[in-house]
Specification:
The complex is a heterodimer of chains A (345) and B (504). With 345 residues, chain A is mainly alpha-helical. Chain A has a single domain, classed as Orthogonal Bundle (ABC transporter involved in vitamin B12 uptake, BtuC). Helix content of chain A is 74%, strand content 2%. By secondary structure, chain B is of the alpha/beta class. Chain B has three domains: 193 residues, Rossmann fold (3-Layer(aba) Sandwich); 153 residues, Rossmann fold, CATH 3.40.50; 77 residues, no CATH class. The longest helix of chain B has 16 residues. The chains are: A mainly alpha (345), B alpha/beta (504). The interface between A and B is medium-sized, with 32 and 33 residues.
């Protein structure tokens, strides 16, 4: 009914609006535009911004946040949130440092497996609490944020492990490039690609969107809400675990406070990338681009010599801008639909 | 399609003597229905007759405590919605339950999206299949658009498309026409008839008798949670059905004592809220209980909310003892002496986690405070006055109201308003979910308040309550006042007739 239109009016103007509406459906578009504008603008002001070493630094800086933002997106899409990812990353990172220190010959792949498993375990604990306790994930993961950090503190104490303890090959993952991309960045791209397909093109992935879009309808529909949400937390935990291992490769030291405060950057990246905080909307690709944007801003403001105290304020403005743009778009869409509906008959 | 054919057709679904209780409340005492292949079967009954409970049993949302349930001759025990879907039962609720952020096509095929290469979802196939379904149904909805913002009628079409794609043998529609316009209803009926041609059994729940008689082959009547009768539509009249729906004796449970009726307290003049209710005019006098009857969705609660100022309105006036109330301002209504006991006391009438005394004195916060602060002792003293008078049974005034029974909770809400010494008390479904004994107590209380000169406007879906308590009965139908009946003229038949607008 709402799409009934006479043939005449559905000519050029309608085609133009089709293109517009097709574009407005790409939620990643604003953040992509912002990223391109930022990179170009900074380049014009300071051409050294795009020399090969800075580009590599940009990629390395973004890598870990990209992986965590992609994982966070999976959870956010189900209308939940995981604030404990910084602490999970910390525990996984410190586990990695410890493993190399106490068992120097340990194969690198095994360290990856253990790091991801540690993250998966912690994520599964989050998922278990959220699906059984009927308490908002915000509160539960706020609790586990402190629990996991507390365990990390108790375990590490004042101890730190430095990159000197780790095999050179492990550190080189963040140095060597392949087709111009650092190895760990390639890992992040693969993670995002796999998740994008899983969420966009599998039934289980679409269930996550349905759950976030209308949890009550999902239950009435017979979707296994609990198990799906649990898996979302599990995946997110595993990715935070992977992030911890990569952190140990990228940075020189891991200790009690590794990853502190990271959760907010990660949620911010996902939201800026078009993932709705109320679930049902957004994509891991968007979240990844959001992460790239936020980490690039920091470098770009440094490159054009903006006081670093302003950098956080700029990030804040971006978050608000993303939310406002989204709100305006959805209001416009609602108005268009309503007007379309009224012009029936 | 003739009735001879329908009655000869094999039985698809049978539910016999189904019982469903929620704690002490019996929602369904004898749920019985029998659906044949290729028939449209109407289910009618008053509010609270058990129709929704029966539908939810068919849908697998509720599991009956007892009863015999077969589909195509085989016993079934649904544990969840998935079971009923697998058995070929599709239910369309009054408010469809779609996923607003997903496309129309995906809403239809959720959980069974078409898979293409590498077992990945093929959006193209899904879109084509959805378009084919809409073609069959003769509706034009873009399968690629998001479900958000679709009209109720279009959302129902999506639910129907879903049912067809599932190849459902039973389609249940719970008051599908309540929110539709005339042309939309016609379209829905065409679709229902074509489903009948295809051999599906359609169960259709409606309060509108013109629709029931125009569409259905057979009619089943429920009353007070019990199966009453099933008729061939052609062999029965509207009057006979109405009689079966309300036919029961009004016992002495509702003791409205005569009170001296005084001057008008509330005067409502041409009150209109666009699309919700229009041109509502009536008055309530001191000492008078006025019942506001009508079907669920007729706009009764909305009128009450507008009078109290929770919602604003587009035109008209509300005056209390000659003083006009400011639209959309509950504080001015409270100051003028209006109390409002809402339908959902758990959500709107009480703060469940707070104590009895604090709840009972919520309306007195300003009066009780000294220098902006309220002490617990003052609160308890003030709270005790009315909770004592109303015999609220609680060991401790600090006990959270969530620990009280439904009846006692309702008394706390009443106490809250009585403490403000109101001139007008609006009560919305005052005895819903309250056991029979306490019900009588609430009724006695209301009657007592009226005899003290308070004007009472009582919304109730329970006809015996309205007829027993009210000095006058106002009846609403689809946003308009259709009758203002004095006590003597208010009978179950007359009220029901005005509420369903079968005669004028």
């Amino acid at each position: 009914m709402s799409t009934v239109q006479t043939e005449q009016t559905k000519s050029q103007s309608a085609k133009a609006s089709d293109i517009f509406s097709a574009l407005s459906r790409i939620r990643e578009l604003p953040v992509m535009v912002a990223l391109v504008a930022l990179v170009l603008g900074t380049f014009l002001l300071n051409p050294r911004f795009l020399n090969s070493q800075s580009v590599k630094d940009l990629q390395l800086n973004a890598t870990i946040v990209i992986i965590l933002a992609a994982g966070q997106a999976v959870v956010l899409i189900t209308r939940n949130v995981d604030l404990s990812v910084g602490s999970i990353l910390g525990l996984s990172g410190f586990t990695t440092g410890t493993l190399f220190a106490v068992a120097p010959g340990i194969p690198i792949w095994l360290v990856f497996v253990i790091g991801v498993a540690v993250g998966g375990l912690l994520g599964a604990f989050n998922g278990l609490l959220v699906t059984t306790a009927r308490v908002p994930a915000l509160v539960i993961t706020l609790g586990t944020l402190y629990i996991y950090r507390g365990i990390n503190n108790a375990w590490a104490g004042g101890k730190e492990y430095f990159s000197g303890d780790r095999p050179k090959a492990f550190g080189n993952l963040s140095v060597d490039t392949f087709f111009g991309l650092p190895i760990i960045t390639i890992m992040a791209i693969v993670v995002v690609g796999v998740l994008a397909v899983a969420l966009g093109r599998t039934r289980q992935g679409r269930d996550l969107y349905a759950i976030g879009s209308e949890p009550e309808a999902a239950r009435l529909f017979g979707i296994a809400v609990g198990p799906r949400v649990f898996v979302a937390f599990l995946i997110n935990g595993m990715l935070a675990g992977l992030g911890g291992v990569l952190y140990a490769s990228r940075f020189s030291s891991v200790g009690a406070s590794t990853g502190t405060g990271l959760e907010l950057d990660v949620v911010a990246a996902a939201v800026v990338g078009g993932v709705a905080i109320f679930g049902g909307v957004g994509s891991v690709v968007g979240a990844a681009i959001g992460a790239l944007l936020l980490t690039t801003i920091t470098s770009s403001l440094t490159a054009i010599q903006v006081d670093k105290f302003w950098q956080q304020a700029v990030v804040g403005v971006l978050i608000l801008a993303a939310i406002i743009v989204d709100r305006i778009a959805s209001l416009r869409r609602a108005r268009r639909l309503r007007e379309g509906g009224d012009s029936d008959e | 399609m003739t009735n001879d054919h329908a009655s000869a057709a094999p039985i698809v679904l049978e539910l016999h003597n189904a019982v469903k209780t929620f704690g002490p409340v019996v929602a369904l005492a004898d749920g019985t229905i029998e659906l044949r292949k290729g028939e449209i079967h109407a289910l009618v009954g008053e509010n609270g007759a058990g129709k929704s409970t029966l539908v939810k049993i068919l849908a697998g949302v509720y599991q009956p405590d007892r009863g015999h349930f077969t589909i195509s001759g085989a016993d079934v025990h649904f544990h969840n919605v998935g079971d009923s879907k697998a058995a070929g039962v599709s239910v369309i609720y009054q408010e469809p339950t779609l996923f607003p952020d997903l496309t129309v096509a995906e809403n239809i095929f959720m959980g069974r999206q078409h898979l293409g290469r590498m077992r990945l979802i093929s959006r193209t196939t899904m879109r084509q299949k959805a378009a084919e379904l809409f073609e069959q149904l003769g509706v034009r909805i873009d399968p690629e658009r998001l479900a958000e913002g679709l009209s109720i009628a279009d959302q129902q079409m999506i639910e129907i498309a879903k049912a067809i794609s599932l190849d459902a043998s039973v389609l249940v529609m719970d008051e599908p026409t309540a929110a539709l316009s005339g042309t939309e209803v016609e379209r829905l009926f065409d679709v229902a008839r074509s489903l009948r041609e295809r051999g599906a059994a359609v169960l259709f729940i409606s309060h509108r008798f013109d629709e029931v008689f125009a569409l259905s082959d057979r009619i089943t009547v429920l009353r007070d949670g019990r199966y009453i009768a099933t008729h061939e539509t052609q062999a029965v009249t509207v009057d006979a059905i109405v009689h079966e729906m309300v036919g029961r004796d009004i016992d002495a449970m509702f003791p409205k004592t005569d009170a001296e009726i005084g001057d008008p307290v509330l005067t409502v003049d041409s009150l209109t809220q666009k699309g919700v209710f229009r041109d509502i005019s009536f008055e309530v006098r001191s000492g008078e209980i006025v019942g506001l009857a009508g079907l669920v969705g007729a706009g009764r609660t909305e009128v009450a909310r507008a009078i109290f100022g929770i919602d604003s309105y587009d035109s008209g006036t509300v005056t209390i003892e000659g003083k006009a109330l400011k639209p959309g301002d509950p504080m001015s209504a409270i100051k003028a002496g209006v109390g409002f006991v809402p339908e959902d006391r758990r959500k709107q009438g009480l703060v469940m986690s707070l104590g009895v005394a604090r709840n009972a004195t919520l309306t007195l916060r300003h009066a009780l405070s000294r220098f902006g602060l309220i002490t617990g002792a003052t609160e308890r003293r003030a709270g005790a006055i009315w909770t004592d008078r109303l015999h609220v049974k609680t060991g401790n005034l600090d006990a959270a109201v969530s620990t009280l029974s439904g009846g006692n909770q309702q008394k706390v809400v009443l106490a809250k308003w009585l403490a403000t010494e109101p001139r007008l008390l609006i009560v919305d479904e005052p005895t819903r979910g309250i056991d029979v004994a306490t019900k009588a107590e609430v009724h006695r209380l209301l009657s007592d308040l009226a005899s003290r000169g308070i004007a009472i406007l009582m919304i109730s879906s329970e006809l015996p309550e309205v007829l027993g308590m009210a000095d006058r009965v106002l009846v609403m139908h689809e946003g308009r006042l259709t009758a203002d009946l004095p006590r003597a003229e208010a009978t179950p038949q007359s009220v029901m007739a005005y509420a369903t607008a079968v005669s004028q």
